[in-house]
Specification:
mainly beta; 7-stranded mixed β-sheet; 11 strands
């Protein structure tokens, strides 16, 4: 059974930082793209960032570009999201996703999804 388990969420003041982690089990994602999505109450799930299997290709939503950095460790079957300069509008449940392809394709919501971790940014 494939599982994606996120951690690292919490409450932080605007301007602060958090680092999210996603641990995958049940299968290796070393040849698959992985990514982060977020969803806040009343809004649709939205893409945040994705990284190719090799880590050489990264994609970001315009709203987080320059503030968030996605990375991965294939030896640990893990995915990370460093979030800096956080804003109240970044408040959401953040979840990781695994894709079947080696790189993310716009519109791909992921074939494997975690339950998510809450990030709350206070003003």
């Amino acid at each position: 059974q494939v599982q994606l388990v996120e951690s690292g969420g919490g409450l932080v003041q605007a301007g602060g930082s958090l680092r999210l982690s996603c641990a995958a089990s049940g299968r290796s994602f070393s040849t698959n793209a992985m990514g982060w999505f977020r969803q806040s109450p009343g809004k649709e799930r939205e893409f945040v960032a994705a990284i190719s299997w090799s880590g050489n290709s990264m994609h970001y939503a315009d709203s987080v570009k320059g503030r968030f950095t996605i990375s991965r460790d294939n030896a640990k079957n893990s995915l990370y999201l460093q979030m800096n300069s956080l804003k109240p509008e970044d408040t959401a449940v953040y979840s990781c996703a695994g894709f079947r392809a080696g790189d993310w394709v716009p519109g791909d919501g992921g074939d494997y999804r975690g339950q998510g971790t809450q990030v709350t940014v206070s003003s």
